[in-house]
Design a protein that fits this description.
13 strands; globular; Glycosyltransferase; 3-stranded antiparallel β-sheet; Glycoside_hydrolase_63; 4-stranded antiparallel β-sheet; 6-hairpin_glycosidase_sf; alpha+beta; hydrolase; binds (2R)-2-(alpha-D-glucopyranosyloxy)-3-hydroxypropanoic acid
Length: 435
């Protein structure tokens, strides 16, 4: 059974791998290379084809801008099956954007640090992998420097995102109150996603108007970070994004130590790391709700909703013992009923929970992968194992979907897999879970 599933996962990855040396997340729906997808995908390849794993990482990092920024989508081809494409984003507005690749002017969570660390683990610390890492690691480091020097608005070790797509959790209810502060124009455009996936599982047209409008604001300022921070209607400190940055800092420090030298870079990362952890705990942890929350910088307030992102600081190692205990309690109480798979992307006890809609409720395999490692880090082995088993069961029962219903007895559908099918990171992380 295990081997059969792994072989199926390999087929998904192979079918999605492209000649240009990158892997699309899902045919039709997502025809380009996405930043955080690429990292997770590389882990799947690494278990059976190290060369492809390295190519995936290399191609992504090759698209880095002169200022260290790495875009969220690299438009390697002219496919028009996705909207908004390169002509809408116009990354060339930024003077330091890549001259080689067209891309978006926004980013996604910086997973590459811990991905390099995991690649070395998978390849059992080989000299070849270390050699590969020595060639790539400075690009990842420069990406972290970019974040700290350009996106740490209050100089507190926490970096902002200026667009919901930067969070990776696109239409989370987290942003609903921010949308209420905006009144974007009605854009005229042809949706492509809903020709691949049932519209009820995707964001609404009006939500897309907001997404497009924020990009237009950023474009007006040629994607200048300082101006975006001043003018974007969306400016958020995301516990997921910052936890990933912290976890990747930790990995870079470890890898630089292994490589030798690099004392200044290690010192820089360590000082930022300390500050980031302190601020994450001081500013984003909410004792009353027992969870890390998003912070809306534009409106200067914590957003009082709990999502799977709220638990990802476990993966970064930021919470102290008591905070970790509190987080686990919240996860079990609100997300972990016996009738549920872990871990819903949004609080199942909240009225905004929607079990079938994208980031408003369904289970995502990449979030589960981070939660599994986070829970294990703090010794919650049983709960971690449950997250892993639930992930495997969902994929085994339904296929390699993009997201899954968290209800064990889902009354509305025979199948509980939604969104894109043959989705790359669901396949890649299943392989990593099983190996
Ligand atoms: C926008 C590719 C990406 C993921 C995101 C997921 C979804 C894109 C979209 O697909 O977002 O970036 O068009 O909906 O939310 O996490 O990286 O798989």
């Amino acid at each position: 059974m295990r081997d059969k599933l792994i072989n199926k996962a390999i087929k998904v990855l192979e079918d999605n791998f492209q000649d240009g040396g990158f892997t699309i997340p899902s045919k039709g729906l997502y025809p380009f290379q996405w930043k955080w997808d690429s990292g997770f995908i590389a882990l799947g390849f690494a278990h059976y084809d190290l060369k492809k794993a390295k190519i995936e990482v290399e191609t992504l990092l090759d698209a880095q801008w002169e200022n260290g920024f790495i875009p969220h989508i690299i438009f390697h081809t002219d496919s028009d099956s996705y909207f908004p494409g390169p002509d809408f984003h116009q990354s060339n507005l930024h003077p330091q954007s890549s001259k080689k690749y067209r891309s978006t002017g926004m980013t996604q969570p910086p997973v590459m640090g811990f991905i390099l660390e995991r690649l070395l683990e998978i390849d059992k610390g080989s000299d070849e992998m270390l050699e590969f890492i020595s060639k790539q690691i400075d690009k990842v480091y420069e990406n972290h420097v970019y974040f700290y020097e350009n996106r740490d608005w209050n100089n507190e070790g926490l970096v902002y995102i200026y667009h919901n797509w930067e969070s990776g959790t696109d239409n989370s209810p987290m942003w609903d109150d921010i949308w209420l502060t905006m009144d974007p124009p009605e854009y005229e455009f042809e949706r492509r996603d809903t020709s691949h996936v049932d519209a009820s599982q995707r964001p609404s047209k009006r939500e897309y108007d907001h997404y497009l409008y924020i990009i237009d604001v950023a474009k007006k300022y040629n994607y200048d970070d300082a101006k975006i921070a001043e003018h974007s209607p969306f400016l958020v400190l995301d516990p997921l994004f910052n936890s990933i940055l912290i976890r990747s800092n930790e990995a870079l420090i470890k890898l630089y130590k292994l490589l030798g030298g690099n004392d200044e870079k290690i010192a820089y990362l360590k000082s930022k790391q300390q500050k980031s952890i302190q601020s994450l705990n001081a500013k984003l942890f909410n004792e009353e709700l027992g969870a890390y929350l998003h912070f809306d910088l534009r409106n200067n307030r914590q957003i009082p909703y709990i999502s799977s992102s709220s638990f990802t600081p476990l993966y970064s190692g930021a919470p102290d013992r008591a905070m970790a205990e509190r987080l686990v309690k919240t996860m079990i109480q609100k997300f972990g009923g016996e009738d549920r798979y872990l871990c819903a992307s949004f609080d199942p006890t909240h009225e905004k929970f929607n079990p079938k809609k994208y980031w408003r409720g369904p289970v995502w395999i990449n979030m589960n992968w981070m939660l599994y490692h986070g829970l294990k880090r703090y010794g919650y082995d049983e709960l971690g194992q449950r997250v892993k088993n639930d992930s495997l069961e969902l994929v085994e029962n339904n296929g390699f979907f993009e997201y899954f219903d968290s209800r064990k007895a889902n009354p509305d559908a025979e199948k509980s897999g939604y969104g894109g099918d043959n989705f790359s990171w669901s396949a890649a992380l299943l392989i990593d879970f099983l190996k």
